[in-house]
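Running co-folding for adenosine-5'-diphosphate.
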Amino acid sequence: MVATQETIDTLEEATGKYKYGFVTDIESDKAPKGLNEDIIRFISAKKDEPQWMLDWRLKAFATWKKMESPDWAKLDIEPIDYQDIHYYAAPKSGEGPASLDEVDPELLKTYAKLGIPLDEQKILAGVVAVDAVFDSVSVATTFRGELAKVGVIFCPISEAIRDYPDLVKKYIGSVVPVADNYFSALNSAVFTDGSFVYIPKGVRCPMELSTYFRINEANTGQFERTLIIAEDKAYVSYLEGCTAPQRDENQLHAAVVELVAMDDAEIKYSTVQNWYPGDENGLGGIYNFVTKRGACRGDRSKISWTQVETGSAITWKYPSCILQGKDSVGEFYSVALTNNFQQADTGTKMIHIGEGSRSTIISKGISAGRSQNCYRGLVRIQPGAENARNFTQCDSLLVGDKCGAHTVPYIVSRNPSAKIEHEATTSRISEDQLFYCQQRGISTEDSVSLIVNGFCKEVMKELPMEFAVEAQKLIGISLEGSVG
Amino acid sequence: MAPLLEIRDLHASVGDTPILKGINLTINAGEIHAIMGPNGSGKSTMSYVLAGRDGYEVTGGDILMNGVSMLEMESDERALAGMFLAFQYPVELPGVGGMSFLRAAVNARRIEAGEDEIDQLEFVKLVRAKAKHLSINDDMLKRAVNVGFSGGEKKRYEILQMALLKPVFSVLDETDSGLDVDALKIVSDGVNFLRDPARSMLVITHYQRLLNHIVPDYVHILAGGKIRRTGGKELALEVEESGYVGIDDAA
Ligand SMILES: Nc1ncnc2c1ncn2[C@@H]1O[C@H](COP(=O)(O)OP(=O)(O)O)[C@@H](O)[C@H]1O
Ligand SMILES: [Mg+2]
C-alpha cells in the first residue's frame, strides 16, 4: 500500500527534540563486556541454538579477527573499542514470551511511548504485524496466528533458527557473505536477534510486516539480523523503525539484512531510522553500520528499498540489489537527513547480471548544521546484462552554509547495450521560499519542514501509508534549530 | 480610533541602497488605496517592507497596525496579526502539496488563537467552496504550490489564499499584470467579495483598468521612493493619459 496524496499532505505539527531519548528502567540480563569465543558461546546458549549455528558464528568470529576496521573516506570517526561493548542484553523477563500477556508491562509501556502498538486489539484492524526487538531479544511478534493461516512465517530469527533450520541454513549468509565486510563478519559472529520472514509461493502477505528495534541498555551494541525470503509470485512489504535513548557515549549498531526474491516475487523493504543522533555539539549518538542486500534471484523479481534516515551520529549503509533474474527490477528510494554534527555516507549498489534488468535510484540528501551527507552509489552492468537500464537521480539540499553534500557515483558498464542515466542537483532552501511561507503565517521551522518534505516527496510517497505521516514529522523534528 | 494601517515617514534600504525615502500613508478600516508608479519606483519594496521580509531594512519611520508598531515583528508574526501580501511573483514550492500548504497556514492561525487544528474534511470543503469562485479546479489544488501554474493561475491562487486567511490588511502587488480580461474579472470579483468595513487593502498596479474593477477610495503615485501625489480614482485616469512624466518633480 502506497501513501495517498492526502495522507502525505497530513503534515501534523512537529514538536519536541529527540522524543525517544528516554531510558526504560527494567532489570536486564547482560553478557559481560568484551568479545571472545566464550561470549559467542554465551549468546548461542542464551538463544538455545543448534550446534551448526554456533559453529557458523565461531567461524565468522575467526574471519572477523583477521579483518581490518575499514578506513572511510568521508567519515570522521573515533576508533571503536570492541572489547568495551556488551554483546548481549535482554530484559530479564523478556526471554522468549509466548504471547503478549507474558511481556513485561514496562516494555509494553516503552513501545506505547514510542508510538508502536503491541496491544493487538489496538492495532488498526490487522493492517500491521509487529515484531519488537528490545536490545538483544525479540519481545513480541503480533498477528502470527493470522499470518500462519496463509503460510507466512514472521518470527524472531532466533526462533527460526530452532524451528525452521533448513530455511535458515539455506539462505543465511547467501546474500551477504560473512566475509563481505568488517561489520558483516562481526554481525555474523554476535548477532542477537532480528526478524525472519518467509512468504510461500503465490502468497501476497495480507498485511504490512514491521519490526521496531530499540537499544535501551548502556554500552551495548545491537547486532540484528533479518532474513526475508519471497518464493515465486510472493509479495511482502516490510518496515523497520529504530530508536535509542539519549546517551553521551556512542553506541554501535551493526545489522545485516538479506532479502531473496524468486520468480515474479516482490519485496518492498522500508526503513525509518531514527537512532539517537547525538546532541547539538556532536556528543553521543549511534554508529549505524549496516549491510543490507537483496538478491533478485528469480526472473521478473523485484526488490525495492525505501529508507528515511534521520538519526544516528554516523550512518554507513548501502542497501543494494543483485539483479540476477531476467528482467528483474531493483529500486532504491532514499532520504538521508543530517543535522548538527551527524555524518551520513549512504547510497546503493545495483549489480546488473540478468538480461533486461532495470534499476531506479532516487536519492534525496538534506544537510543542515555542520553535518556531512554523502551519496555513494555503484551501478555495475555485467557482460551478460543485455539491455540493462539504470536511472539515477541524486538531489542534495543544503540548509545553511556550514554543512556539506557530496555525490560519488561509480558506474561500471561491461555491456555496450546498457543505458545508464545519471542526474544530480544541489540546491539550497531559498530565501524566497521561506519568506513566501512565513508571509502566510507559517513559522520558520514549519516552513523549513514543509519545503524539505516537498523536496523528499518522491521518496516519501513510496513509504507505506501508516508510516508516511510519522516520517514527515520526523523530518520536521530532525531539522529543528537548523535555520534562524 | 487608530487607523487600521499607518505608515509614518518610512525609510528603507536594500543592502546599502536607500529605496523608500519617507513614505506617509494612513489607511482606515474599510478603505482601499491604490498605489501606482513607474517601474523601479519602490512599490514591491514597500510591500516587502510592510510584510517584514529579511534584508529589507527600515532605516527610519514606523509602520503601525491598529496603533501598534510592527517593526519588531517577524514576517510570520505580522501575517498572524492579519497582514497579507499577494505576491507580484508567487514562489514555487516543489513537492509541497497545495492542500498541506494551505492547511499549515490556516492551522497556524488557529493555534495562535488557541483553537484546535481544522478538521480535514471541513477544510477540504472550505477550500473547494472558495476555489470555485476563483475558477480553481481540484486538479490545481492537488498540485505542488505554484509549480507549473500559468501566470493567471498563480494570481488566482494568491487570492484564494487571501480568501482563506481573512487578513485585515492586504497588499496586492500587481495582481493584475499578465491577466487577460476574463481572468482580471475573476480576480477582481474575488477581491471585491472580500471588501469589508473591517478590512483594508493596498492595491499596487501599473494600469488604470484594474481600478475600474476594484474601485479605490484613494490613489497614490509613488516615484523615486516617495508618494508624490494623492487623489481620488480620477488620478489613475490622469496618469494613465499623461504618464508619469514630471511626477518626480511634483513634490
Ligand atoms: N534585492 C534588491 N537588491 C537591490 N536593489 C533592489 C532589490 N530589489 C529592488 N531593488 C531596486 O529597488 C528599486 C525599486 O524596486 P521595486 O520595489 O521592485 O520597484 P517596483 O515594484 O516599483 O517596480 C529598483 O531600483 C530596484 O532595482
Ligand atoms: Mg514590483
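Result summary
DSSP finds eleven helices and 24 strands in chain A.
Residues 120 and 206 of chain A are 16 Å apart (CA to CA).
Job closed.
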